[in-house]
Amino acid sequence: MPAKLRLDQVSMSFPTPNGVFAALSPVSLNIEQGRFVSLIGPSGCGKSTIFNIVAGLLEPSGGRVLIDGADATGTIGRVGYMLQKDLLLPWRTVLDNVILGMEIQGVALRAARERALPLLQRYGLSGFEYLYPNALSGGMRQRAALLRTLLFDTDIILLDEPFGALDAQTKLQMQEWLLGLWSDFGKTVVFVTHDVEEAIYLSDEVHVMATRPGRIIESIAVPIPRPRSRSATLTPEFTAIKQRCLALLTAGHDAALGEAA
Amino acid sequence: MTVQDTSRAGGGLDLSRTGSAPAVRQQKAARRLPVQKDWPLWAIVAAQIGIFAGLIALWELAADAGLIDGFFWSKPSAVYATLIKFFTEGNAWIDISFTFRETIIGFLIGTTCGSLLGLSFWWSRNYAAIVQPYVICFETLPKLALAPLVILVFGIGLASKIAIATALTLVVSTLTTYAGVKAVDPDQERLFYSLGATRLQVFRKLVVPFCLPWIISVLRVNIGLALTGAVVGEFIAAQHGLGRQILYAGETYDIALVWVAVLVLSTLAVIMYAAVSWLESVLRKGVKQ
Question: Which residues have a Cβ under 8 Å from the Cβ of B147 and sit 6 or more positions away?
């Protein structure tokens, strides 16, 4: 069986006055169906570039993106993409925001709403369906944005630091919520975060990236069995992975500093 | 009172503790937040009416006493008499109807076309870049200075006034709507495209609803501009209209009639402004839902 999502030597470079800037040196990645995979790395390591390329919003300088073994480079509407900002439309109710993807795909409004309503109720937005986004807290808005991504009905979803702007308490709640959603829907998730612990806790695999040029320096499997409890984060196994990630990130950071100096 | 007592006690305490500068401390503690009391609405309205009535009375008395020249300034009683005559004997309703139609039609054409033009800039950055200098030129151009030319081209009837009112409102709507178009969040657009949207879908579901508040925000400005355009057009050449009435009255030294026409014009302006404000609030509610 071919990988669900495959990056084949994908690279990105821009011409600048000082020569060609490599935002992303060739990156290859295989992600299997139903996996939860995280990318971590410092700012400017090309995480968002990878997402934009996979979502078809950016044409890579080289390489291909394969979905289910077929070339999907530069095609939009193949993956669900959630940006850091929730980007809910203020003039639409939560319900009508959530169905945006289906609406764009041509699903009739009534059918789309009928599909979305039970999900809103099941995933913690019951009572908010007909409110406008400005009446919602950050966590609730993020839930709505995630449901919008899920209801877009693609097998792959890309989450770009979805919980980056939330407070610590809400973040933990949202992680559990996301894991629940993921096990219910069985989607393939690619997750970008700055938070090492979050990446390990949620993922089956963590890919650590470095900057100048953006690249993956190590891929680490997380063999902690699911469902995971919070106490899993205190096990020696978890701590070992975390330390490995932190060491890689610090090394990359120091290397970048050394290069700059 | 109790607060003052406490502060005094506090001052005494400070004295015993630090033994220095008690006077300064006490003064500091005694200062209160300045509070402005709101008058009841009736008092505000009464004051407003009182000032108006006072000014009218002063005007009348000053004219009677010869302090101001009644010939140039007229006086309230004469204005009132002329007002009655204007509505009973004159062509008041014809004049009002002309000015009203010129304003409304110019307002509608200018606002609609301006908004559409502004929205159209979203479709192509190249097209926007090419057309923009022309729009800016047209904005900075003193359009009223071109009014005589417009009269020559469109004649002395309704069309020329509508054209001037349109010209004044069009640019404001265009530029404001274009500002809205430029304020559309690029990330928002990327979200739409990531969902597989076509350009038409982005336009209809994102750009237009996003720009609506911008479009609505110029309605009140535009109704005033449209009225200005219509009246200036009438000043230059017209057979009917309140602007023409004002000019005619001035030329014949009928100062009371000037005041009457200005008064009627102001009333018309207030009514149209109120109507547009109402329209705006209705539209805003509509946009939210």
Answer: B164, B232, B233, B236
On whether both B239 and B118 belong to a single domain, the answer is yes
Whether the full predicted model's pTM is greater than 0.80, yes or no, is no
Q: Which residues of B touch A89 (CB under 8 A)?
A: 188, 206, 209
Domain hosting residue B181, numbered range: 87-288
Q: Is A127 left (phi over 0), alpha (psi -120 to 50) or beta?
A: left
Chain B positions in Cβ-Cβ contact with residue A87 (cut-off 8 Å):
185, 187-188, 191
* Domain range enclosing A17: 1-78+190-261
Query: ipTM of this predicted complex?
Result: 0.85
A77 touching chain B per CB within 8 A: yes
How many domains does chain A divide into? 1
| A22 vs B: CB within 8 A | no
pLDDT band of residue B12 (cuts 50, 70, 90) is very low
Does residue B107 belong to any structural domain of this protein? yes
CA distance B65 to A236: 102
Q: Would A149 be classed as within a structural domain?
A: no
Between B285 and A98, the more confident residue is A98
Q: Find the CATH number of the domain harbouring A52.
A: 3.40.50.300
